[in-house]
Amino acid sequence: MTSKILIIGSSGQIGTELVLKLRQIYGNENIIASDIRKGNHEVMESGPFELLDVTNKDDILDVVKKHNVKQIYLMAAVLSAIAEISPQRAWALNMNSLFNILNLAKNKIIDKIFWPSSMAVFGPDTPSVNTPQDTIIKPATVYGISKFAGENWCSYYSKKYGIDVRSIRYPGIISYKTIPGGGTTDYAVEIFYEAIKNNNSYTCFLSENTTLPMMYMDDAIDATIQLMQSDQIENYVAYNIAAMSFSPKQLAIAIQKYIPNFKINYKADSRQGIADTWPKSIDDTQANIDWNWKAKIGLDELVKSMLQGLHYNV
Ligand code: AKB
Question: What are the structural domains of the chain?
């Protein structure tokens, strides 16, 4: 039996599209989707799926053995807004899931891991414009604390046990196939669903000039797979990647190009406090140098693809 790739969190926003792309590249039967709940019908129907609780290490081991899994992409996590509401649950899930997978590599049961980090590792003391790869990192959110701790654990396991683990610090990811759940950048997805409804209006939970780094899903998936396929990676680095930065106001203007009567209102809630601690833009030079990373999709193409993906004629 050939070795397989397991995606944990395949019903989530990134997991869904990662499974579909990896199945195109490596063949449907070689990519095992798994999640605590069933997800996107294309994912469910195009290849193997296992119901899996990422905090249960015995169940993970069973699935790994059953399918001869050699690589794991651990995409399950509690995101920033939810983590502020349930800090201990977020910490337990985000950390225990990572230990479960790192220990499989330590015990030589699997060969390679992808573990997603986030721009949320950066905090209010970090330079917020063109945030460098190596800089002051003092996260101010529960989610950011768990991501920074995770980066350190990946680095520790990589140095101490020689395991191959790779990470990206994702910016806000925008896509239409599966909606994100519980993040601070989610407004930039919700806005499209509301823009095409009858009253063409959206009330944003961030203020109009809150600029954040963002990326269209296709670029995020390409970056993930490119990093995993690279044979240039010698040491563990949680790579900054970037594509564009915009505020809710700038996104609304870009949508108005296609939906001229679209209206946006602002009613900032607690998520504003999270966004205020994050970078406005990111420097991804190191990813570019180390594995040739470069984003392809800009704001106008993103808006067009989102509207088309949601069946709106542009
Ligand atoms: C969130 O908003 O929590 C995530 C992230 C930036 O990691 N999208």
Answer: 4-173+215-240 (3.40.50.720), 174-213+244-282+297-309 (3.90.25)
